[in-house]
Design goal:
Blueprint lengths: L11 E4 L6 E6 H4 L9 H4 L3 E7 L10 E2 L4 E7 L1 E6 L2 E6 L3 E4 L5 E5 L5 E7 L6 E4 L4 E5 L5 E5 L11
Antiparallel strand pairs: 1-2, 2-3, 3-10, 4-11, 5-8, 5-10, 6-7, 6-9, 11-12, 12-13
């Protein structure tokens, strides 16, 4: 059995250039040996677990829909606002919710204290992401590197013949 305490995991962070988006995280699965870049499912793990913390006034990332990834959330503390296709829903400690592939969503802190939650994701190989507000798409290049494009809809065969 592998075991680690949350106090032993270094907290990472991600911030957008202008400060609208930002969060802190502890990658629990990585601390337990998950190798992100491996194609070997024994090394990659079938799911990923992270403890997330969004400060007041911030969102974790833009409104987006994963192409193939499932995400399960469990709120630990604070107050959050979860945006999806039906609008915005307030969530608090003890609430749990799920997004399946193709369901756009965004998590934000909606209170004066940090919004803290666990997220479990299956992180499928070759996943992509669509950002409905901006029309952008993101696809994984290698490892954690992403290619993000702002594209216009076109015919499937456009430029192919």
């Amino acid at each position: 059995m592998q075991k680690i305490n949350l106090d032993q995991i270094q907290e990472g962070s991600r911030q957008s250039p202008k400060g609208k988006f930002g969060a802190f995280f502890k990658e629990i699965s990585v601390a337990l040996g998950r190798e992100r870049d491996s194609l070997d499912l024994d090394k990659r793990h079938p799911f990923d677990l992270a403890l997330m913390r969004i400060p007041p006034g911030k969102s974790f990332c833009p409104y987006h829909a994963e192409g193939a990834q499932w995400e399960l959330y469990l709120v630990v503390s604070g107050r959050g606002a979860v945006r999806d296709a039906s609008g915005t829903t307030d969530v608090t400690a003890g609430d749990s919710f799920l997004f399946k592939p193709g369901e756009a969503h965004q998590l934000s802190c909606a209170g004066d204290a940090d919004f803290v939650y666990y997220v479990i994701a299956d992180n499928p190989i070759g996943d992509s992401c669509y950002y409905p507000d901006s029309g952008k798409f993101a696809v994984r290049k290698e490892g954690d590197e992403m290619v993000v494009v702002n594209a216009q809809e076109t015919d499937y065969f456009d430029g192919e013949e």
